[in-house]
Design a protein that fits this description.
Layout: E1 2-6, H1 15-25, E2 29-33, H2 47-60, E3 63-68, H3 77-97, E4 101-104, H4 116-133, E5 140-144, H5 154-164, E6 169-174, H6 175-181, H7 186-193, E7 197-202, E8 204-208, E9 211-215, H8 224-234, E10 239-242, H9 255-278
Parallel strand pairs: 1-2, 1-10, 2-3, 3-4, 4-5, 5-6, 6-7, 7-10
Antiparallel strand pairs: 8-9
């Protein structure tokens, strides 16, 4: 497994500055948030910008591990068309960056005027269409487990991917949201999720009564060594992306302080995971 940083953790840095920091910390790749307030704006991606990103990544020795856009509306035929067009645009950019994964938001839930099953079927149709649209590119769409979507826990995620059943559509495992949803036992859910996993988001959480909060790695309650042991046992060789949520939680320590500790924690967890497999 390889480690990468996520630009969600570096909102005050330029993309070039974030790359330099990630390389210095010891990450091997970078996940780039693609939004109008992100480090790449998917509606304004130029050949010149892509070449600049490639040049900088090559200079500091990083791979582009994942592009993370925010297209995820499948609530109507027109919304689905625009989502598929957006994902295709990002997939085209990913191909030019040598990036293999594009994040795909699995719809939004709840939605007014429909049932969960109807929304799920509509989403599955949309994701199949997106999979067909990106077929010309050497890119996989990663459906991310996430609160507020139709893949908010292990069961809904597995059911969705079973409906989609497309070779270009796989899973971005974000266990933070599974824990929030109540899937707190990796031994129960990981055997079914791991074979579908193309990319992994890593972050930690603490509970405050009924509320949850993001914290630096190693300061929370998720059993990441056990999760990583399941990934290792299966032979997962993709990225572990340090999705440090400085963007959403500005009071978290600055990335220059937090990311070296996060990277060290990830490497420690991997060693603990290997020890679990040897027991």
């Amino acid at each position: 497994m390889r480690l990468c940083g996520h630009t969600m953790g570096t909102p005050a840095l330029s993309l070039e500055e974030a790359m330099a920091l990630f390389a210095k910390v010891g990450y091997e790749g970078i996940e780039i948030r693609c939004a109008d307030n992100g480090h790449l704006h998917p509606e304004d991606i130029t050949e010149q910008k892509l070449q600049s990103v490639c040049d900088c990544a090559r200079r500091v020795g990083l791979e582009i591990a994942c592009l993370t856009p925010y297209y995820g509306d499948y609530s109507s035929p027109e919304a689905t068309r625009l989502t598929v067009e957006g994902l295709t645009k990002v997939a085209r950019a990913a191909q030019k960056l040598g990036c293999k994964i594009v994040r795909a938001i699995p719809g939004h839930w709840p939605l007014e005027g429909t049932t969960f099953l109807a929304a799920q079927r509509q989403l599955a149709d949309g994701l199949r269409a997106a999979g067909d649209a990106v077929a010309p590119y050497d890119v996989t769409l990663g459906v991310e487990t996430h609160g507020g979507t139709l893949a908010f826990n292990a069961d809904t995620t597995l059911a969705l991917l079973a409906l989609v059943e497309h070779p270009k559509v796989r899973l971005i495992l974000d266990y933070y949201w599974l824990a929030v949803a109540g899937d707190e036992d990796p031994d129960s859910v990981m055997p079914d999720l791991v074979p579908l996993t193309a990319h992994v988001h890593v972050k930690d959480l603490v509970w405050h009564g009924k509320e949850h909060g993001s914290v630096p790695l190693g300061q929370g309650q998720i059993n990441w060594p056990l999760i990583l042991a399941h990934l290792l046992a299966w032979g997962y060789d993709g990225y572990l992306s340090d999705e440090y949520e400085k963007l959403w939680h500005p009071k978290l320590p600055d990335p220059e302080e937090a990311l070296p500790a996060n990277c060290a924690c990830l490497r420690r967890w991997l060693e603990e995971a290997r020890a679990l497999l040897e027991e």
